[in-house]
Structure formats: structure tokens, C-alpha cells
Amino acid sequence: MSKVKITKPNRVWLFGGLGFHNSEATMTPIMSESFKNEKVLKCFREISPTFSRVYGGFADWSKEAMDHFADYYDSTFRQSDTLIYMVPGRMPMPTKDFRLEDFAEKTASKLDYLINKRNCTKLRYFCVTNELAAGNTYAYLASRLDLFAELHDALYRAFLRHGLDVGLLATDCSEEKNYHQIKWATENIDEITADYCAHLYLQKHQPGDLEAYEYCKGLFSELVSQARTKQKRFILGEYGIFAKNRIMYTPDTAMVSDISYAAEYPENDGLHAIAAAEMGLAVLNSGTFSGVWWTLFDYPDPFIHENGETPEAKNRYEVSRFSGHGVNMRYNKHGLIKWNDDQNPSRAALYTMGYMAKLFKKGSRVLVCSLENEYLRAGAVENPDGSVSVCIINWSEDKENIELHIETPTDKPLRRYDFSADKIPYNKFCDLQSYSESIECDGNLILTAGPRSVTFLTTDYVDRKPSRVRGVRLKNGVLSWGKCPDKEHCYYRVFASDEAAFSLSEETQIASTVAEHIALKNKKKYYRVVSVDRYGNSGE
Predict the structure, then answer these.
(1) Do 321 and 243 meet the contact criterion of CB atoms below 8 Å apart?
(2) What is the pLDDT of residues 148-157, one digit of tens each?
(3) DSSP string covering 308-342, please?
């Protein structure tokens, strides 16, 4: 019997939440309505991450592109009260004609428009660079930290002129070999820096390597310590997992291939999902303020960078300019959800990282987890409302019986959500898995963790039945229904059958969507629409 003890620390810190880089925030012009409603908006709202990173703040950002971003913000970040960390995916090469002050003023004016005109008030952080060692511009700045400091200072002064309450982050450096830049920033630009940030793409340790957790936690703890010496926080701005023998430049595609371990080795998709959750626990337990998984969605396949006359061409042009480097020359396949695969749209990590972001949220207090079994990892938080969320990872190839003690009292049963690398709950509609059981807990319980598994336990829910969806009708190949009035409503599930269904097993789910309508490809005789609320409760 393995023991896991969860206690309140003497000194607690507020966690900023786990989330994603939301590349899709600047890509809405090239989405179909069905993809936007049934995948992008639906999946974001179901997970509701309370911390996110986005591309934006381009000095040449067009009003049309900013409005597209703001519309996405209204449909997502605003509803989940998400704190946002923004970074331009590109910037002009600072040649002799580069006007630093003009660049900073234009950037500040774009953010001013979003915050004060479009009310995107959750833009809390901005970093002038996306990885100081990546790309032509940023690699150049890595060797010219003096110029980076001037850019940082110019932005600071421009933000003051515009009255922007947006903190600057430094330095967004990537990989352990570049972490010295954080120390440089604390010594040279601390007075104008709000907090510090870096990235880690795990490559030294592959999924299932039992040394990976302590390696990650150690790196993050050191960066937390450096930030703390200046009474600042450390944010992990991107994290993910690469294959050990990663090849970025592939002659067979003539593209830059930025591909995750899971995309490289789909046969190990389940192990990658557990390793992703393990990195999330290292973020939580190291004192890191927030962590951002790269990414919620894949990028679309690269397309030709060109302008045109048709709306489609103009949309592609906008997206190629204001979505970083991902839609021109770079294959970017790190998403929990794929862009171009309707049959197998999700990766296994959706079913671990989805709950990591959903349950380990902004404003929670980190609890202390004590355990001795080398195969187990654990993390836990207490939310402001007193609810508790726990994650337990079992790397063993055998099941583990666990004696769990939770010092924080629970006022209702724990809902349990399970993930197994050997039985991945893939879902055609990218719906998160339902809870497997409801467990009474007086502070002590015995549970069994399956082999190579992740177990979530939480009281962060309300046990309720969503309102019945009314007004379902079919007309001209479009199924529509009345809007659910519940404030807890999240999205709809649509079911169809050839005959009147007397049990759920006789129905087939045909969609999950945030819209009140879907276009039908194959008509059935009977349809049923149910509301799913933000706690995962499903209506009738």
C-alpha cells in the first residue's frame, strides 16, 4: 500500500493556473464556422483555462486583424476570466533603418486599442521577444542583450504614456542552455520588468523516464529562486516534449518541422499524455506562477504567403502575417487537438492536460503532497471556494493501491476522472471524459490507480441537471434549437437515431458545438440535443 498525504503548507502561495498557447486566437479568419463552433470554441469553453499565452502586439497589426482577435477574446477569454500573456510571433530585424521608439509606440497603440476600445482587459503581460535564441531576429537579440534592454525600456516608457497596466516579461528564453538570460535580466532590467519567463521543451528525458519529474522541478525551482530574489514571479511561457532525435529540417517536405513527441511517435501517445501531466505537476510543485502548454490546437498545414482579391485569399494573408511563423514555412504539430483530421481529431494529452488546466486554475492555493513511491507523482490545490483538486500519476506498469489522506476537509464526494495510457478515451468530438465514480471522503480513502495512469479527484463541481433543450427542429438540412438559459451552460451535444430511441445506447452522437444549429450531412429521423454545463453535467 502506497501512502499519499496532502497537507496545507505553513505559507501558501496563489497559483496562476495552467493553460495553453492559443495560436488559434489569431487564426479565426481561415476557420470554417463548423470547425470554429464544434472544435475551437467548444473545446476552449469546456476546458476554460484561466491562464493563456497568445501571439499579438505586432507593431504593424492591422485593425481588421485586431478585431478578429478581440472577437475571439469575447468568445473565450472573457467568459473564463483568463489572464493573458501576449508576445509577438515575429518582429522586424533591427537594421540601421529600425526606429526603436517608433516600434515601441506602435506596439503600445495596438494594445491601447485592444484594452481601451475592445475591452480586452485581461492582457496582463507582454514580452517583446518570442525565444531569444529562436528565429533570425531573436537569435540576433540573444547576442545583443544591450539592444534587447533598449527595446524593453522603450516599451516600458510607451506603456506608461498610454496608461497601460501591462507588465513586461523577460526574457522568454528557451532551453536550459539559455537560462542565464534570466539572471542577466534580474541584474540589468529588473526595475522595468514585472515578472520573468522562460520555456522548456523536454528532450533529455523521454516519456516514462522516472528522472524527468525531478529534472523539470529542479530547473523550475532554480528559476523561481532567481525571480524571488527580486520579489518577482517566474512563469513557464511554453512547455512541451520533443523526441530525443528530433529533426527540424526535413528534406522530404522542404519545411521546418516543429513536431511534438506524440506526433513523431503516435504509438506512444498515451505515455506522452502522462508525461505532459507530469510536467504540469512540476510547474505546480516548484513554485512556478503559471505554465503554458504548447499548444491547444495544431497549426494548419503551411500555405503560400500571398495577398489576393478574394475574401479567402485576404484571410490567408492576414493569418500568415499575424500568427507567428506557423502557417508559412513551419509544420507545427504540438496541439492537443489536430487541425486537419476529422476522423482522429485529438491527441491523448487532451484527456490529461484538459483536466490539468480545468482543475488547477488561477487563484488556487498549492497544497503539499508527501509520497515515497518512486512511480507516483502527485499535486493538489485548494480553490477560494474551498473545493479541492488532486492529480495522481502512476508510472508503474502495475496497478497501485494508494492510501490517500487529505488534510483539507471535503464537503461533498470527490468526482474521479481516469486516464490510462493503455485505454485512451479518444473522442471524435474532443469531449473530455466523464467522471468514473463519486467517492465519499472523510479525509482518508483507499483507491487503486491503474498501470501507467493519471487519476484526477475533485470537489470543484456542482451536482446539477442542466435545463432541457427545447425547440429542436429540422429545416432545409439544418438542425436548430433554442438557446439554453442556464448561466452554467457550456456547450451542446447532438444525438441522432433512425428510430425513436428508448435508451442512450440506441443513439449516436453526431456533434458537440457551442452554436444553436448544425448542418446535417446524413439525415436521420430522430434528433436529441442536450446541454452540457461547465462541470460536465449533461442534460436530458
Answers:
(1) no
(2) 999 999 999 9
(3) -SSHHHHHHHHHHHSBTBTTTTEEEE--SB-SS-S
**Closest Cα to residue 512, out of 492, 538, 498, 531?**
492
Own/partner contacts of 148-157, CB < 8 Å, gap of 24 or more, are 149/188, 149/189, 150/100, 151/100, 151/103, 151/104, 152/128, 152/189, 152/192, 152/193, 153/189, 153/192, 154/100, 154/101, 154/103, 154/104, 155/104, 155/107, 155/108, 155/126, 155/128, 156/192, 157/104
Write a three-state SS string for 454-508: EEEEECCCCCCCCCCCCCCEEECCEEECCCCCCCCEEEEEEEEECCCCCCHHHCE
Here the cell at position 484 is 439554453
- Respond yes or no on whether the N-terminal peptide bond of residue 408 is cis (omega within 30° of 0): no
Q: Grid coordinates standing for 454?
A: 493519471
**271: Cβ contacts below 8 Å, ≥ 6 apart:** 207, 208, 421, 452
pTM of the model: 0.96
Kindly state the cell numbers that stand for 273. Answer: 499524455
Cβ atoms 308, 274 nearer than 8 A: no
Q: What is the dihedral of CA 266, 53, 35, 48, to 10 degrees?
A: 100
> pLDDT tens digits, residue range 63-105?
999 999 999 999 999 999 999 999 998 888 888 889 999 999 9
Give me 385's grid cell.
Answer: 471556494
